[in-house]
Amino acid sequence: MNSPGRVIGFVNAAHFIDHYAMLIFAAAVIIMGPALGMAYSELLPYATPGFIAFGAGSLLTGWLGDRWSRRHMMVIFFIGIGASMVSVGFVQTPAQLGAALLAIGIFASIYHPVGTAMIVSYADRLGREMGLNGVWGNLGVASSALVTGVIGQYLGWRFAFIVPGVVTMLIGIAFAMTVIHEDRKGSKQAAAQARVAKQDMWRVVLALLIVVIAISTTFNAVTVALPKLFAERLADLTRSPALLGVIAACVYVFGAMTQYTIGRLLDHYSLKTVALPLSFMLAPFLYLAASLSNLPLIVVSIGIVMGAFGQVTVNDAMVGKYTTEEWRSRAYAVRYFVGFTAAGASVGLVAWLYEQGGFVTMLHAFAALCLLAIAAAIILPREIRTPAAA
């Protein structure tokens, strides 16, 4: 038997790495552009195939996690995404860059359907562990902006990909040596933990579909655009890539705290009770951010990341509560396929909206999209809480 603490620890590390790897380019592109002789709006779309693969690949990886082995899939994740990060550090042409970023997206697609299902299987308190797991993912987002800014400034953008790639492969070797494949039959988490009336299940599916599309698109757009937004709007405070990375990291810390808090709340209250007030955060903060700069922008950005990361925790808990063990990876696969496919499209959308009217147009557009999160929370039915609902 595997130690639950050890497995969850590795899975949390994988969540950190997953988001870190996907967002290195978003932070490095600021200094890659001049080095490669390309503008921001020209270079950014090369990340689109990787983000689409991040979502589309989850259908296959989730199926393999349920039908083959979640442990084996996580070994492939660690080694594959680590090697892909290293490969970006050696690219010479935009085509090679696109291919290497695509490889990162393909291997990154393993984590969410497989790793999140492992968290649910090993967790004693689902909300708490989901919240902590979300914190690790959020720290990956924050650290990516921070570490990439520092390494990029002092060692160059290539080492910003090579160094974390090598570290990730070493973690993968440690995981392969200490976590064994197991038979999941008879797991204590085999049953769903909550249910709703059968006639209301369509409302759960509809609410999840709406909120996943709206939040995943906005979440990805914000994490991709924030380094560039800060570089433009915080120019009166600093022009240092390293310091801008520190500021972005500090903003993301508030998102991490929100995910932990939301996770704890979900252990005590229904999804609708938590989701409804949370759904009102994003739209007004995004709208306000469009016209702000310097310190006011930093404050409003904190509200944006709190709303976005809190919603992600609610969405993951919804799938974990309502699905059984034998279908859980596949259920997460569908959730992340929809979410990350929409998120992948957001990269091109950010570039296009930025060309049309800068960050004002972009932020107004995503503020309007986030009104759908309010509708989804209203649609969500009340759940029937039981110790182990079938």
TrEMBL record:
Subcellular location: Cell membrane
Record-linked InterPro entries: MFS, MFS_dom, MFS_trans_sf, MFS_Transporters
Cell membrane found in the keyword field: yes
Keyword Secreted carried by entry: no
Spans traversing the lipid bilayer: 20-40, 46-65, 72-91, 97-123, 135-155, 161-180, 201-222, 242-262, 269-289, 295-314, 334-354, 360-380
Coiled-coil ranges per UniProt: none
Residue stretches making up the Major facilitator superfamily (MFS) profile domain: 7-385
Keywords, alphabetical: Cell membrane, Membrane, Transmembrane, Transmembrane helix, Transport
Domain of life: Bacteria
Membrane-protein topology: Multi-pass membrane protein
Name this polypeptide is given: MFS transporter
Lineage of the organism: Bacteria, Pseudomonadati, Pseudomonadota, Alphaproteobacteria, Hyphomicrobiales
